[in-house]
Structures are given as structure tokens and as C-alpha cells.
Design brief:
By secondary structure, the protein is mainly α. About 70% of the residues lie in helices and about 0% in strands. The chain has 11 helices and no strands. The chain is globular, with a radius of gyration of 18 Å. The relative contact order is 0.20.
């Protein structure tokens, strides 16, 4: 059995910023991201996605057209707001997120994952009492709660966004593997493409201000609404 050296046992240290980012990006984080396909399952049902190439293009487009210009841009602005506890700014960002959820299942995902991540933060004592009180007043959506979690890592903003983007990419890839379906090698090729695209998406998110941030994705909204009544589905709606 391994026994830590006495010097290491004298003080309890928090995980490094890198380890905290890996932790938050992990599919093992118990917030339910794996249970949503974000329109992908409906796109498969409609024949828009049917193989590795079309699945990869779909998720890459979603990364650039919705994630980077919407939720990731919100997180880029919310992380520093959490660090200085700018409650007015956080409330404004949270209201914007809720206003851009165009279907019931999109709202469900934002609210449920926000609550689950907040429970995780509370259980692990990863947020201050003032931050938790602010959360109670919002109540926070997933982008705002993830921004709170990322703010605790004290990591550079671009690295924080890369971590959350890769966590999202893993969930979407797993959804494609189950629903298309695809093999594990195809999934790794999808992730390799997404890993190359994520830095550009992060830079886009960092550049956007309130006037430029957007969530205009009508086809995704239509597919999400169809998914809510889809006869056979694997993912939550």
C-alpha cells in the first residue's frame, strides 16, 4: 500500500488548475450531459446525419455556429463576473441564456444541468456562501453554473473554455456513436477533428461582446422541437 511522504501529508492541497479543468471536462461529472443529443438524434431521424462524415460535420458546425457564439461566449464573460461577484452582470447573462432556449427540451437541459452542477459544487464545497446565495437568486442555467465552477480553477480563460468545449465534444461524439451508430475508431476521428477546431471556436467566444453574441440556429430549434415528440428516441427530451 502506498504511503505518502510525511512532508506531503502535513498540508492538504487543492487540485491544480489543470486537474480541475480535466475534472470539469470529464464525462464522469454527474450532471447528465450524456442524456441529451442537442438535436443530433432528430437530425439522424430526418436523414441529415447518417455516417461518420455527416456526423462530424454536424457537430463541428454546431461547435462554431451555436456553442462558440452562444454558451461559450457567455461563459467567457461570466467567469470574471463570478470572480468579482458581479451579481447584476451574472443575472443579465443568465436571463439571456434562458431567453435563447427556443424549445422545451433546450430549457430542460439548461435548467437540469445547472441544478446538478450546482449540487456538485455545494457537495464538494467548491463555491463560497456568497456565490451560492447568488445562485439561489438566479437560479442559474448550465452556462452560468459551469462558469462558476471554471472560475474556481483560476486557469487562463482560453484554457477554461477549451476544457468545457472538449467536454461538450465528448458528449456529442458519444451521442453519435450510439444513435448513428458509429464505431469507436470513428469516434476517435471525430474527436481529433473537434480538437483541431476547438481553439478557433474559443477565440471566437473570447472576441464576442453582448451585441455580437447570438443564438440564431433555426434548424437546430426545429429539430429539437421535433425530437420532443419523436416516436423512438434514446436521448432525453
Amino acid at each position: 500500500m502506498y504511503t505518502a511522504p510525511a512532508a506531503d501529508m502535513s498540508t492538504e492541497t487543492a487540485p491544480s488548475a489543470l486537474l480541475q479543468l480535466i475534472w470539469l471536462a470529464s464525462p464522469a461529472l454527474p450532471i447528465g450531459g450524456f442524456s441529451y443529443s442537442e438535436g443530433l438524434e432528430a437530425a439522424i431521424e430526418q436523414g441529415l446525419v447518417h455516417n461518420e462524415a455527416s456526423a462530424t460535420d454536424w457537430v463541428v458546425d454546431q461547435l462554431h455556429l451555436t456553442q462558440s457564439r452562444g454558451d461559450m461566449a457567455v461563459m467567457a464573460q461570466a467567469i470574471p463576473a463570478w470572480q468579482c461577484l458581479d451579481t447584476q452582470r451574472l443575472q443579465a447573462l443568465n436571463i439571456w441564456v434562458m431567453a435563447t432556449r427556443e424549445t422545451a427540451e433546450m430549457r430542460l437541459q439548461a435548467e437540469q444541468m445547472g441544478r446538478s452542477l450546482l449540487d456538485w459544487l455545494r457537495n464538494l464545497q467548491q463555491a463560497s456562501e456568497a456565490q451560492l446565495q447568488c445562485c439561489a437568486q438566479l437560479p442559474p442555467t448550465f452556462p452560468l453554473t459551469m462558469a462558476l465552477a471554471l472560475s474556481q480553477a483560476q486557469a487562463p480563460l482560453d484554457q477554461a473554455l477549451q476544457a468545457v468545449a472538449f467536454g461538450w465534444a465528448e458528449n456529442m461524439t458519444q451521442a453519435a456513436l450510439k444513435a448513428v451508430p458509429l464505431g469507436q475508431s470513428a469516434g476517435q476521428r471525430m474527436l481529433a477533428r473537434l480538437a483541431r477546431e476547438i481553439p478557433q471556436a474559443v477565440q471566437t467566444a473570447l472576441r464576442l461582446n453582448d451585441e455580437d453574441r447570438q443564438a440564431f440556429s433555426p434548424m437546430l430549434a426545429i429539430l429539437s422541437s421535433r425530437h420532443e415528440t419523436q416516436y423512438s428516441r434514446i436521448f432525453r427530451s
